[in-house]
Amino acid sequence: MPCRMRGSRSLSPEFAIIPRMYKKPELQIQTTTLWEYPSQHYGETMQGDKAYVGATPSYVIWNLLQRYTREGDLIVDPMCGSGTTLDVARDLGRRALGYDVAPYRKDIFRADARKLPLEDEKADFVFVDPPYSTHIKYSEDPACIGKLDAGTGQYYEAMSQVIREISRVLRPKRYMALYVSDSWKMRQPFQPIGFRLFSILERFFEPVDVVCVVRHNRTMKRRHWHTEAVTGNYFLRGFNYLFIMKKRERPHPKRETITSAGSVKQSSRPKNWAKPKPPLRPKRKVKRGTR
Q1: Which residues on neighbouring strands pair with residue 99, listed in sequence order?
Q2: 289 in a domain, yes or no?
C-alpha cells in the first residue's frame, strides 16, 4: 500500500517514508543498587511477550544470571508468566524450567509454586515475580495467588509456602531473587508488600542485597495519572524491589543423645568429633639455690 501524504498525492513503496526504529541501549551489568533500562526487552528479539500484563523486564533477569550463574546451570521460575526467564536463560546458555498455574505457552509446566514437581536441591538459581495483591487478573484458577489480597494474612501465608518451596529446590550456597512492588489502592491502607516478604525471605536465606528497579510502563506515561496523584495527595509506584538472597550452607546433621534424666539432647557435632586436648604447658625452669 502506498503511503498517503497531504492532499491527494501518494508515494510508491520504494519512496515511502519508513519510521525510524528506536535503538535500544546495549546491555551492561549494573554496578549500583538502582537499575533502569528504558525498554521491556533487550536486543532485536523479544523475551517473553510484551502483550502479557505484568511481564518482568528481561534486562533484570539478564543481569541476575550474568552475576550469579554459569553456562549449563539450571534456572527455575515457579511463577513463569509469559516465559521471560526461560528466554533469557536460553540466550545465555543456561538450562531453564518454568512453572505456572496457568501456563502461557507449551514449554511452561502446569504447577502450583507452593508444590513444585522438582527434586530437592536441583536448581542453581531461582527467580520469582509474584502477584502484588489483586491488581492484575492472571487466571481463573482458584489456586492463583493473584486472587489473594495483600491486606489479608492469606496472601503472606501463601507466599511463605512459595518461599519455603524455593528453599527446598535450591542448592546450598546458591542464589535466588524475588521481584516485587508494594500495593496501594484508593480508599484502602497502603500495603508494604516488599518489607513483609523480605522478613519471610530472611527465615530461609541470607540477604545479599536490595536493588531498586525503576518502573517503565504505559500507565506511568499517562499525564492524567500524575495529575490525579497530585490532586489526591498519593504516590504512584515508581520502583520495584529486587531482593537477592543466598541459601545457607547445609548444617551438620544433628545427633540425638539420651540424657540421664531421660530427655533427648541434640548436638550438631560430627559423630567422630573429639574434644581437642589443651596445649601442653612448658616446664618451668627452677634456678639453683632458689625455691
Answers
A1: 109
A2: no
Q: Which of 151, 158, 133, 152 is nearest to 237 (CA)?
A: 133
Task: Over range 255-277, report the average pLDDT.
Answer: 52
**Range(s) of the domain holding residue 152:** 27-247
State pLDDT tens for residues 72-96: 999 999 998 888 999 999 999 999 9
- Report the chain's C-alpha Rg in angstroms: 27
In a domain, 149, yes or no: yes
Contact call for residues 49 and 104 (beta carbons, < 8 A): yes
Give the Cα separation of 206 and 280 in Å (integer). 40
Is residue 111 in some structural domain? yes
d(CA 35, CA 26): 14
Measured CA distances, 213 to 11, 22, 63, 120, 259 (Å): 45, 22, 12, 31, 54
Residue with cell 501456563: 103
Cβ contact 221:276 at 8 Å? no
Sign of torsion over alpha carbons 164, 165, 171, 174: negative
More confident residue, 120 or 239: 120
What is the value of pTM for the model shown?
Answer: 0.73
Pair type for strands 108-110 and 95-100: parallel
CB 133 within 8 Å of CB 140: no
For 24, 40, 90, 107, the CA distances from 48, given in Å and listed in that order, are 17, 10, 12, 12
- Indicate which CATH number applies to the domain containing 195: 3.40.50.150
Most confident region among 50-59, 148-157, 189-198 by mean pLDDT: 189-198
Instruction: Decide which of 95 and 256 is more confident.
Output: 95
3-state secondary structure of 58: helix
Question: Cell 527446598 identifies what position?
Answer: 168
